[in-house]
Amino acid sequence: MVNYDCIIIGSGPAGLGAAFYLLDKKPDLKVLILESGKTSSGGLRNDCKMNFTYPIGFPSENWNKDEADFYLEKVIEKLKPEILEKNNLSTYQMRAEKLGVNLINIKQTHLGTDGGLFLIKKLIKELQDLGVTIALEETMLSVDSDKKIIKTDKREIGFKAIMIAPGRKGFRFIQSVMDSLGVNYMDHIIDIGIRVETRVEHYPIVKDYYDPKFMFPEKVRTFCTNSGDAHVVQEKYKTVHDEVYYSVNGHAYSKEREANGLTNFAMLKTVRFTAPLASGQQFAVNLGLQAMLMGGGRPLMQRVGDFRLGKRSKESTFNGDLYDFKPTLAGSCPGDISLAMPSKIMRNIWKSMKLLDTIVPGILHPSTIMYYPEIKLYANKPEFLDRHFRVKDTVFFAGDGAGTSRGITAAWASGIRAAEGMLEVILL
After folding, report:
1. Which of 14, 115, 159, 216 could form a disulfide with 7 if both were Cys (CB 3.0 to 4.6 A apart)?
2. Confidence check: pLDDT of 378 > 70
């Protein structure tokens, strides 16, 4: 059986951040990164939009501003981002403030999906040159914290310290790990919403502020704005019973690609459940399955013009008249999202969209498309033993799937925090 000083499960930003920190502090460490996918994965692969300002991406139960700022400096030092310029911000902020909406000024950079892939290859090569072993298409099945052994679908591996960071899509996997280790957790917070797609001229703020962060009343916010060569995509998920459902998402390519004149962004409603609901994430999964039932196994899409008239969209809706652009996720099913989304969530999101249309007139143009569902399942709340996200003597968590972050830069920062704890364990 092969042994390592440190095993990192997941090659997303949390795993990368941890690996670079460990090798920087102790270059002779024997480190393994285990990745179930064919290539390195994580948030860097999808659009690669990064925010460098608290509180974006930093759950308040795990971070305060001073902590976030401290670790963000380490992230910036490694990634050396080119911060995007903003224009006319005060005008938009003044309009928003009058309506009780907050437009947060965030330091951002955007590499695009193609730029993100280039960055991943660069970072992976750096780690390999430092001696890190990266095992692709290998899945961890279980961990024994007492014997300090993990079992994969290929072998058994020993460790001194392990960090588990499977990302958002690994939320169910990390729950199974917590169950096996006897770690208490809650998963009662979820994000449910839609992905909005429209012409850039109907949402011109993106010319001044690439990914504007609007915070509305009723815990609704804009999220993950894309413009340039922007596309809406679908992400495949499976339930514990192997039922398939899709959540929509958005991405854009780098400036090297020709713009398609469209922009897309999410409108998300954060929902916090209380007793007696056992699992907020299971509730969200059921919503995803319901949407698939209505859409014949596909996400739903509806034009704003039809929604305002109280009628469903049909194939004929997507014509060349007022509805003047083709959906980039053309495989979606035209329908009525109000039949699939809980009414309170729909009301909160629609109210927020009307406020947004007052701040940035045009977003409610009849041609604007609303895709459903966009579901974020990264709100596990494990009981951590210390500030390094330790759950057992030698076992640490990090990243979105563990609820320690909600985005690329915060995930990287959480990986560093966990790595600090791993190093303490190893050096005991």
Report:
1. 159
2. no
How far apart CA 200 and CA 227 sit, in angstroms, is: 7
Q: What is the pLDDT of residue 13?
A: 95
Q: How do the residues of the chain divide into helix, strand and coil, expressed in percent and rounded to 5?
A: 35, 30, 35
Q: Are strands 2-9 and 156-164 parallel, antiparallel or unpaired?
A: parallel
H or E segment and range at residue 7: strand 2-9
- In SS3 terms, 233-291 reads as EEEEEECCCCCEEEEEEEEECCCCCCCCCEEEEEEEEEEECCCCCCCHHHHHHHHHHHH
Going by pLDDT thresholds of 50, 70 and 90, the confidence category of residue 321 is low
List domains and CATH numbers for the chain. Answer: 2-86+108-185+382-426 (3.50.50.60), 189-376 (no CATH)
Q: Under DSSP, is residue 230 helix (H, G, I), strand (E, B) or coil?
A: strand
| Contact assessment for residue 226 and residue 250, using Cβ atoms and an 8 Å cutoff | yes
| pLDDT tens by residue, 236-254 | 988 878 899 999 999 998 7
Strands 262-272 and 220-228: antiparallel
Cα 406 from Cα 399, distance rounded (Å): 8
Measure the CA–CA gap between 98 and 193, rounded to whole angstroms: 25
